[in-house]
Amino acid sequence: SDLLRNNNIKVITHDHGSGNVHCNQTFMHWVEFIHSDCFIQFNELSAQIRNNSLKKDFLLGNNLTEIKSINNSDKNEKKFSIENKYHTLFPIKSIMYVPSAMHGEGQRMNPIIHDLTYFDWQVRLISFLKQKNLNIKFKPHPEGLTKMPIDFANKMGINEINGNFEKIKINVDAYLIDFIFSSTTPLILSSNKPVIFIDRGYPVLTNEALKYIKKRCYYIKAEYTNDSRLDINWNELDNILRIYDHKIDMTFSSTYFENCV
Hints:
Layout: H1 2-6, E1 12-14, H2 28-31, E2 38-41, H3 44-53, E3 66-69, E4 85-89, E5 94-98, H4 115-131, E6 135-138, H5 152-156, E7 159-160, E8 174-177, H6 185-189, E9 195-199, H7 207-216, E10 218-221, E11 223-224, E12 230-231, H8 234-241, E13 245-249, H9 251-256
């Protein structure tokens, strides 16, 4: 961006993934705002939240970023519409686990889980799901710097699904995720399927987002043990997997995901 600006070229960038306005915005000053003259958002709410979070003191001498929604310039603007609530009755017999990427020796502005801790967690989680006689689909992140062993799924006795999530045409009873800021999140949460969200703790959701996510998902808070392992109340997960009567509130998607799906 510095090279473009030095040649008097305006830098216009676009929010990526599914956006992340449902967490604290401080880090965005250094990963997005500082490099952008104009930062385009998926929707009006995202633009409003970003604008309200802007602090010139965090921009290290740069001018305030202009933050706009794509709806500002869309003459054929379509209002996002999604059914607000679903009520379904069925047992969970198949589930797709969609983890986030592993990062190797890389780092992000927000805290991330170490690959060894995450791999250990995935092995224990999948082993637990297998004990429940579920049909398990495992969808690893396609861009992880650390890859799972080639024969991981085969040795675990599960089905590995590759390719872009958007192109997958596999029907399952429920999804399980442990990261809320992935580009797959809008599609998963906007489906009419039950979703189990295991919250690893980072990034920290805003109070409003946490309230809505607890209405949309079966929510489990994870903890880190003294030996650096991720852990949950396994009885809580077991009880969720036994639920037959599923009430799904779509407020989270209708609030945050306009133009994302």
